[in-house]
Specification:
This protein is an alpha+beta fold. It contains two helices and five strands.
């Protein structure tokens, strides 16, 4: 299951998975792009291992990782609670 985390002003969407049995959480990022359809990348927490990077620059990934690192504790918590809405009792 994937849960919405946030949508940035440039329409970049960030979602995350439930915590997997091995303790990892998948964070998936995608951004609409007129030329490519969607840019996308996957970051695995807690190791910050990146894969499947498509049309994001190295600088883009650095910026995204900085943002993910600042929220990793929340993402990991939400991944165990069924997403933000369940964790916040909305």
């Amino acid at each position: 299951m994937m849960y919405p985390l946030m949508t940035l002003n440039d329409e970049t969407e960030i979602v995350h998975s439930d915590m997997l049995d091995d303790g990892e959480v998948k964070v998936y990022i995608e951004k609409p792009d007129e030329k490519y359809g969607f840019r996308h990348a996957t970051c695995w927490l807690p190791s910050y291992r990146w894969e499947d990077i498509y049309q994001f620059s190295e600088r883009d990934i650095e910026h995204l990782e900085e943002m993910i690192r600042s929220m990793a504790h929340l993402i990991i918590e939400f991944s165990q609670e069924g997403g933000f809405e369940n964790a916040s009792n909305l």
